[in-house]
Amino acid sequence: MAILSKIRDRSMFLILIVGLALFAFVLDPTSIQNFFSSSKINAIGEVNGDEVDREEFAKQVEAYRTQNGGRATQMQAVNAVWSNMVSEKIFANQLEKAGIIVGEKDIWDTMISLPEIQNSPMFRNEANLFDEEKLKEYIANLKADAEAGNTQAWYNWLDTEKSIKQNLERQAYTSLVSAGLGASLKEGERVYLYNNTKMDADFVYIPYASISDDLATVTKEEIQKYVNSQPKKYKPEATRSIQYVKFNIEPSVSDDTAVKNIVEGFINDREEYSNAAKAKVNVLGLKNATKYESFLNDNKSDLSYDHGFKFKNQVAAEISEAIFSGLEGDVVGPYKNNGFYKISKIVEVTELPDSVKSSHILVPFIGAVRSTSLKSKEDAKIAADSIFTLVKNNKTKFIEIADEINTDGTKGKGGDIGWIRKDQAFSPSFDKDFANYIYKNKAGSVGVVETAFGYHIISVVEQTKSIEARKIVTFARAIEASEETENIIFEQAETLSANLSDGKKIEDLASEGGLNVQSAVNLKDLDENVSGLNSQRSIVTWAFNKERVVGDSKRFDVDVAGKRGYAVVVLNDKTEKDGVSLSSDVIAKVRPELMNKKKAALIIEKMKGATLEEIATNNSVSVSSVSLVSLASPLLSGVGNEPTVVGAMSTLKIDEISKEIEGEKGVFVVMVRKRDTPVELDNYDTFRKKLVGELSSRGYLLYQVLEETADINDNRAKFF
Fold first, then answer.
1. Diameter of the chain by CA atoms?
2. 280 Cβ partners below 8 Å, 6+ apart?
3. Where are the domains of the chain?
4. Which CA distances in Å does 664 have to 101, 122, 648?
5. CATH top-level class for 355-464?
6. Where are the alpha helices (DSSP H) in 27-147?
7. DSSP letter for each residue of 272-283
8. Does the domain spanning 198-236+585-676 belong to CATH 3.30.70?
9. Quick one: how far is CA 567 from the chain centroid?
10. 235-262 b/e with 16+ CB inside 10 Å = b?
11. Which architecture characterizes domain 239-250+481-575 according to CATH?
12. Mean pLDDT by 10-residue block, N- to C-terminus, for the chain (720 residues)?
């Protein structure tokens, strides 16, 4: 009692402690540090000295996800918004320097010229002409609605205006830059000669591949030195590499058997105690049930009722023979299919065509799907019956009325819906009443059918040959891991995680336990996907925590393509932006380049001789020839594209042996035998204009250049 009294006395203290504990459980420790830190970063980034505000950025990310209907992941939204905001700030800086200003009149004139504005019925007057005043009235109403609290439409309109303004500004800037791009007649002449000078040459070629890699090894230090010498070409990025073992939460053999037994128990009637009746009552099984939707819902089937008919090739292979050899009322199963245990009952046996061609006349009413009609349901039924009387024996009249009153895609086509396959007709997206009529009535039938869209006068125009079909009802339960199985898998993951924390190696532990170790290398700080685990932003964030060191490990809850599990992750490599360390992808790019340079030096030592023939003989190769090669098409027969070699050929004296040339695929010694220059032209303006056109067409590279030269500080990874 004394203890209970003390607890009561300190209740608020305990509540606070528990609250903080829960808070710490939800948040990453670093998040807590950041929360209480007075030195937290308040900007997402900075572009040319202009900050990207954190709150504004977060608002735009949320707006982006809303506009995309939640289809974009958070990081996809973050990256899209970042790209847009960086672009805005870069161009804003350039526009200010260039003195480009887009006024309200420019925006308005562009807006009213848009086809979607010009052609909208909302902005047309009685004469069916575009009316600016109607557009102004529409905008005023949007603003008034926003002031009343309905802001979304107004914000969308402001976004439209903003987009127009940005496009005009960028067009003006691009045009200004393009206007400064020109070319002289001399440059036009050079283009002409470049494209039309043809050369014949002999050459000796020794490929890099002829030298063993063992003779041209490249050290990591050499790669580092090379990368450091070319900071613009190689921009070191911070990377992380991890190893992990994934534990899938999958049902055990006993779980499988348990689900099978449960499903089997729904075949026949059974007695259950009813609390309402305070007695045992008889509960119908699938065999004797007649209200199938209710049966599936009441017994919590994991699959809903499929009203469609199935041909034999549409029924699960496990039961197709049994279903199509059985009688109405027979129950087949339990059987395993697509992760479920199922029992299926034959409900109806019939013959159906595979496809039906039909036409319709639609009479909608108030409240029907996609209806703008003011007719009551009763009036619509009277109208449909009246139309039916006119068209049931008159195809011409059917087409006339369909074209007159239909408002869907069949207008102008005599109401023709075209061919509908049975699987389409009986799919959830197609109206089942319409489908039942066209499939259960013979070609030539005309009838009135009510659907969610209104009253249809349906004409069954044509059908394919009928074959046997069956309607089945299926009760299903997903085969899932039990709580006991989940606990066992969790304990396995926890055990591995604990052993790693004790300093043991993941490879050794995996080998002992028969586990599969997977890797994800060169993760970037803004990556969302982890190889083999799909979207796992939390793992990337953990790996890039500034406190994280190689060897750290952690267990994560993961969901990969709908399959839950655990991933026990080890950080096994990290590189930073300071260029001290190299990522494996940079090494993979640079090593072959440096290796070829070493091989080239070895090859050059052996390329001795006074003539091409002598050089070839000394290296056990032959002299090759090439004809009509040009700078515009630097292809050497038997070798491939070699622009450096052909470029050297353009300056060599005729019949003079070149020095060794390091090409793309090997080392070359070349002798030009013939060089045919094209005839001189009186004027090279055509080629000058072509060059100007090529320069202008590269306007798309403008932003790329501006972005590369901008001073951009990116803090996204610290917040997302």
1. 113
2. 271, 272, 273, 274
3. 1-40, 104-179, 198-236+585-676, 239-250+481-575, 254-351, 355-464
4. 49, 63, 13
5. alpha beta
6. 29-36, 54-67, 74-98, 104-112, 115-118, 132-147
7. EEETTTTEEEEE
8. no
9. 24
10. ebebbbbbbbbbbebbbeeebbebbbee
11. Roll (3.10)
12. 33 37 41 40 84 88 82 88 87 82 87 86 82 89 86 84 86 75 81 89 96 93 86 77 95 96 95 81 92 94 89 91 95 95 95 93 91 88 95 94 91 93 84 91 94 95 92 96 96 95 92 93 90 93 92 94 93 75 76 95 93 94 94 90 93 94 96 92 85 72 78 86
The pair of three-digit structure tokens given for residue 504, joined into one six-digit string: 């043991």
Tell me what pLDDT residue 28 has. 45
Q: Which amino acid belongs to residue 245?
A: V
User: What are the E-state strand segments in 338-409?
Assistant: 340-353, 355-363
Residues 6+ apart with CB under 8 A from 81: 57, 60, 61, 64
Stated pTM of the model: 0.63
Q: Which long-range contacts (CB under 8 A, 24 or more apart) does 434-440 make?
A: 434/360, 434/458, 435/308, 438/356, 438/358, 439/309, 439/352, 439/353, 439/356, 440/350, 440/352
Q: Backbone phi, then psi, for 391, in 5-degree steps?
A: -110, -10
Q: Name 691's Cβ contacts closer than 8 Å, sequence gap at least 6.
A: 183, 187, 188, 191
* Alpha helices (runs of H) in 230-372, residue ranges in sequence order: 253-264, 292-298, 320-325
Give the pLDDT of residue 24: 40
CA 455 to chain centre: 41
> Please, is 332 exposed, middle or buried when counting C-beta atoms within 10 Å of its C-beta (0-12, 13-18, 19+)?
buried
Question: What sign does the CA torsion over 125, 130, 132, 134 have?
Answer: positive
Report d(CA 583, CA 562) in Å as an integer: 32
H or E segment to which residue 53 belongs: strand 50-53
Selection from 197, 201, 198 nearest residue 673 by Cα: 201
Give, in order, the Cα–Cα distances in Å from 2 to each of 9, 13, 537, 574: 11, 17, 49, 55
Q: Return d(Cα 519, Cα 472) in angstroms, integer.
A: 46
Stated length of the chain:
720
β-strand partners of 668: 205, 661
Nearest Cα to Cα of residue 462 among 483, 474, 445: 445
